[in-house]
User: Fold this.
Amino acid sequence: MALDAAKKQEIVKKFGRNENDTGSTAVQIALLSTRIAELTEHLKSFKKDHSSRLGLLKLVGQRRRLMRYLKRTDKEGYAKLIAELGIRDNI
Assistant:
């Protein structure tokens, strides 16, 4: 279920300030969004995989907290990020 290195590096290049910026809030939200999308597809096939469902809920909560922080600190960056990722603004 984990992201491979090439895909992760591509996300870091797209959303980070530079190619080594893996810790910024935007990069973390983008990485979590990709993992959430993959887990959602997995759970469509395997409906009874409850441990993955719990992991998905943890990831969604973590992304929600990061999005709340980003909205509080950088409103323009937040708006740009949710537009690029296609995430609803429900925070």
User: Anything to note?
Assistant: The helical segments are 5-15, 25-45, 50-73, 75-85. The domain at 5-85 is CATH 1.10.287.10 (Helix Hairpins).
